[in-house]
Amino acid sequence: MARAAHPDAMKPKSPGRTRTAPPMAPGQFPFAGRYRAYTLFDWTGIIYLLLGFVALRVVWALGNGEGAWQSIQGQLENPLYLAFHILSLVSVIFVGVRFFRLFPKAQPPRIGPLKPPPGPVIQAALYAAWVGVAGGLALVLAGGIF
Amino acid sequence: MSEKKTFRITRFDPDRDEAPRTETYEIPVDPDWKVLDALNFIKDEIDGSLSHRWSCRMAVCGSCGMMVDGKPTLTCKKALSEYGSEISVEPLANFPVVRDLVVELDGFMEKFESVKPWIIRAKERAVEEGTHRQSQAELEEFKQFSMCINCMLCYSACPVVANEPEFIGPAAIALGHRYNLDSRDEGAHERNEIFRGEGSVFSCSYANECSEVCPKSVDPAAAVNQAKINAVIDWATGFVVTRGKE
Amino acid sequence: MRARHFATGSGDAGSDRFHDPESLSLAREIRYNPNVFGGPSGPPFPDGTATPDPSGSQSAVRVRRPVPGKRGVEAPHPFGPPLARGTTLIEVIRHDIVIVGGGAAGLRAAIAAVEADPDVSVAMVSKVYPMRSHTVSAEGGAAAIARDDDNLEMHGFDTVKGSDFLGDQDVIQYFVEEAPKELTRLEHWGCPWSRNEDGSVATRAFGGMSTKRTWYAADKVGFHMLHTLFQHSMRFDRIVRYDEQFVTRLIVDGGAVRGVASLDVREGVVRLILGRAVILATGGAGKVFPFTTNGAIKTGDGMALAYREGVSLKDMEFVQYHPTGLPGTGILITEATRGEGGHVINSDGERFLVTRDYGVGTKAELGPRDMISRAIVQEIEAGRGLGGPYGDHVHLDLRHLGAEKINARLPMVRELAKIYAGVDPVHEPIPIRPVVHYMMGGVDTDIEGATTIPGLYAAGETACVSLNGANRLGSNSLTECLVFGARAAQHAVRYAKGTDDGSEDACRRIGEEEAARIAALRGKKKGGEKLARIRSDLNAIMESGCGVYREQASMDETARTVAQLKGRFADVALEDESAVFNTELTAALELGNMLDVAESVAVSAAHRNESRGAHTRKDFTTRDDQNFLYHTLCNFDPTGPRLSKKAVALGKWEPEERKY
Amino acid sequence: MKHLLLRLEPVIWLLFGGGIMVGTMLMTAWIAVVGLGAPMGLVPADALAFERAHALGSSLIGRIVLAALIALPLWKGAHHTRHVFIDMGGADRDALVAPVLYLLAIAGTVLAIAAVVRL
Ligand SMILES: Cc1cc2nc3c(=O)[nH]c(=O)nc-3n(C[C@H](O)[C@H](O)[C@H](O)COP(=O)(O)OP(=O)(O)OC[C@H]3O[C@@H](n4cnc5c(N)ncnc54)[C@H](O)[C@@H]3O)c2cc1C
Ligand code: SF4
Ligand code: F3S
Ligand code: FES
């Protein structure tokens, strides 16, 4: 526990009248052991940001006409882009797996008269949707249908 | 009592120490001991000045939480045999340290109180009217979240608590959520406003570590994230329904 | 809903009321900082927390009027700004009612006080944060009639009979009437009682109760009740909590109680918390014994506090042994296991409560605790127990209940058995042996909870209002905390309105005396005996003399040894000199209290030459109503405890042989 | 600023949630085909030829899908990047960092809508 937490962490609004030692962050935080998965989960945020803007560039090029489209297609073959996309794919799958594991229990037991289905059912539905949406879109994009 | 184990314990006496230090004790241990038994042995037999909180020694009063080998642990519940021959015991992370293994609790109590953890009703029910009817299903909805023993392990594990002093935090949100889910309560809107206010439920980034360390399977991560959904629904319905201000 | 309007008041109305004996003070707070031994202030810590404020310790008298209200959330800290370290200070804080103890009884009293009068200002002083109080560990349930096949008469008679006719019948009458109301209130406040199919509150069977009248929330009843009470108490601004404040002395002056002196465990200073009435709700004293279900905090502080001020301790010889504790740790396996149908079996797998005559008749496992404890001891002595690393025991068998019922009704039992005994009750029987559980005796009070000192009240386990007599029925005590906690508070509020504050100078003198005593005790190196040694010797001698079965010689021996231990305690060596969170100091104070309580237990026991309820003697095996149908009163005297008698309030139910 | 952030928290959180859920699903396919499949020649060459791509993209459904595919991950990205800053001890600068990140997401969202509108 070498790292210090925020000096005001869990400090009462009016501190007691004795001197206290500052709070320490939990052991292993943020990069090691049990915090690794969570930290990675957060850090994928940066990848998602980049990913969004890359996609924006591609779609923007599509709007610019055939020349721009060809050019962006060419750029995507750049190993840097390829590496980025491989990393992105791993991230996206990691995010999906972690989030879909945590998602069911985040459903309130009841919203008004509605009750969500049991956890495993939600999870199965999420995976089905994932496979369906991603698979469907991939097929469309890859020319399998339409 | 033949086996020996070494304990590295954080010591801090604000009257004398500039900063916390570590002291090492080697003691004979009994195979049936919990971590707390070892601490009590040290206090009784070796160093009477060691300070730590404990009372029930049956995992229900919530006072004996500490970092054992870097992990928030209820020391009266965890068997010594689960650890190696060297064990580190530190005060709970994310809390100011009052002394040795004793942390400042008042910050937690403030957060605890801030969620209005009591039944709020438009009209109080009179004793003569008898008890409420509550079905087993209705009870099940909040039961789990009412099991919290306020041991604060979840606060020690939560990365957001470490960095955002305002965050209401897992156990307190779970408690507020418990009342929101209780069929006898009518204060959900009030609490949802608190949940959306400073230190809001949205600060939680679903690290889920709170639930990993919770000794009572309260699953505070579930509560916090359910509370987010309810807080959003409550916020959205605010545009549709006009609510009378109390 | 909350008494907000006091939060900002800054006028002088309060100080006028100060000398007006007729009215209640409005959260007046007087602070004196004589700065007796002003020391150098420590260096500010790197994070800047609690930089000492030297000016804070200079001003001689500060009068603060804001409602100490929400502990720093909206209002300033009740103790004001930080003070220089090394300052020995005596502060005076004034409330109307001071409640010592934050368990079920203390919290209920606090709530009842503000319910009785929303303007009353209540101090809730507790040596641990209230949710750590040992009420939290109660498992089985709380009794009050709830079913159609039940009535007050039956609950009353069960209690009288359970008490071996030593319970006061007017008290019992009041208790059974109020019980359902109190538990209903708790339901309204959010207690998650377990439910029947139709949504009504479920009840279970308990030992010595003739029908199902024990309300439960799975097997975490005390936990849920305590947290419900604690959380509900937070609604009230007028209840000001003083957490981790160890009350070390009652301030008695001019023939009435004026408040308490309390050690701030966090700061190491002694503070006076004054009030016109003081309610002791400090719980039991199981820690006097080595093998107990009680937690570390149950050291009989309230009993000792009152005892030393001249209040009698009543019926201290009656110490309840619970039949089913885990060997080794003493952790309780609730009676609800038997209520739900568990069997007690010996090494032959025989249900000896059914097959042999132990006086429990057809009730078998649902007999009262004293009888079952005795039966187990007899089985073990007859060689039908099982050996183990922690002594002989018998088995509690739940296997036939099935996993589903155990998980639904007894989840905590399963968890405790797994963690602390290494057995899963679904598949294996649980090793159990009788264990010290509850003090029937305590501070002598009348039905109002009032003691012989005007203004001093007691409620809960620390009190002896004479509900439980010689043997408490399981699940009556949680309800007792509510019923008599509330009643004591209601009376205390009435009393406070009609009395005055007394002399503050006198109180301050007592406080200073107390501060000096504690300062002398802290880190006292002389002598040489370890605290833990004296404590374990005390435990050992109490077990040998005041166990399940008692004899004249061993009880006398115990009384003598405890007296010697008191001498040794005067010579105890303490090594911790720190002012901050000095748990060695609090342990020493607790041991001092335990010694007083232990002495009164041993001496009271040695004089009751009969067997009644939990007090079972080998040399006087029968109950003797002719000579011993009275309450024992034990009074403090520097030369040793003095005993006297108090009549039992009989009524409807004439003493008869106690046979089930 | 802090106050405004607090008031917007529910919206941000909804968009963030959408980003995780929908963004992840859509992006899986997008990366597989556009980011990796096509450049690596694993997808038939004519699948992403300009005419087909433009036809797909400019259909109503195409526009919606593309806009969501760009914008939602930005919200997940912005929100989580904010948490990265906080985890690194930057909570005190949150009032500065968070608006920048969310403005980035807002800008990206506006551009994404523009991009699909002009297809
Ligand atoms: C394991 C167990 C199981 C039980 N199960 C049942 C059951 O199923 N049904 C039933 O009816 N009863 C049961 N009981 C009995 C019942 O729980 C107790 O009698 C009851 O909880 C006592 O409550 P209390 O409020 O008097 O004291 P406690 O809850 O013990 O509270 C004492 C309070 O006083 C404070 N205090 C003590 N000394 C000081 C001091 N010097 N200065 C300041 N504060 C002080 C403490 O901090 C604490 O807040 C059980 C008891 C045990 C131990
Ligand atoms: S939620 Fe769990 S970990 Fe957190 S305080 Fe409650 S019991 Fe402890
Ligand atoms: S660990 Fe913290 S971030 Fe959320 S899920 Fe739990 S509160
Ligand atoms: S001592 Fe009570 S929870 Fe550990």
Ordered list of secondary-structure elements with their pairings:
The complex is a heterotetramer of chains A (146), B (246), C (660) and D (119).
Chain A: H1 36-63, H2 66-76, H3 79-102, H4 119-141
Helix pairs in contact in A: 1-2, 1-3
Chain C: H1 13-18, E1 29-32, E2 61-64, E3 90-94, E4 97-100, H2 104-116, E5 122-126, E6 142-143, H3 152-162, H4 169-188, E7 203-204, E8 214-215, H5 221-233, E9 239-243, E10 245-253, E11 256-264, E12 270-274, E13 277-280, H6 301-308, E14 313-314, E15 319-325, H7 336-339, E16 343-345, H8 352-355, H9 369-381, E17 394-397, H10 402-409, H11 411-421, E18 430-439, E19 442-444, E20 456-458, E21 463-464, H12 476-497, H13 504-521, E22 529-530, H14 531-545, E23 549-550, H15 552-569, E24 572-573, H16 583-606, E25 616-617, H17 625-628, E26 630-635, E27 642-647
Parallel strand pairs in C: 3-12, 4-5, 4-13, 5-9, 13-20, 19-21, 22-24, 23-25
Antiparallel strand pairs in C: 1-2, 6-8, 7-8, 10-11, 11-12, 14-19, 14-26, 15-18, 16-17, 17-18, 26-27
Helix pairs in contact in C: 2-5, 2-12, 3-4, 4-12, 6-16, 10-11, 14-15, 14-16, 15-16
Chain D: H1 2-37, H2 50-58, H3 60-90, H4 94-117
Residues 54-57, 59-64, 74, 76 of chain B line the site of FE2/S2 (inorganic) cluster (FES).
Structural commentary:
The complex is a heterotetramer of chains A (146), B (246), C (660) and D (119). Chain A has 146 residues and is mostly helical. Chain A is built from four helices and no strands. Chain A has a domain at 24-106: Fumarate reductase/succinate dehydrogenase, transmembrane subunit (3 helical TM bundles of succinate and fumarate reductases, Up-down Bundle). In chain A, α1 (36-63) runs antiparallel to α2 and α1 (36-63) crosses α3 (79-102). Chain B has helices spanning 35-46, 106-114, 136-143, 153-157, 159-163, 170-181, 188-196, 209-213, 220-240, and strands at 4-11, 21-28, 65-68, 71-74, 86-90, 97-99, 102-103. Chain B contains nine helices and seven strands; from the N terminus they run ββαβββββαααααααα. In chain C, 32% of the residues lie in helices and 17% in strands. In chain C, strands 9-5-4-13-20 form a five-stranded parallel beta sheet, with helices on one face. A five-stranded mixed beta sheet of chain C has the order 21-19-14-26-27. A four-stranded mixed beta sheet of chain C has the order 3-12-11-10, sandwiched between helices. In chain C, α6 (301-308) packs across α16 (583-606) and α10 crosses α11. Chain C is globular, with a radius of gyration of 25 Å. The structure holds flavin-adenine dinucleotide (FAD), iron/sulfur cluster, FE3-S4 cluster (F3S) and FE2/S2 (inorganic) cluster. Residues 148-154, 170-171, 174, 213-214, 216, 218, 220 of chain B line the site of iron/sulfur cluster.
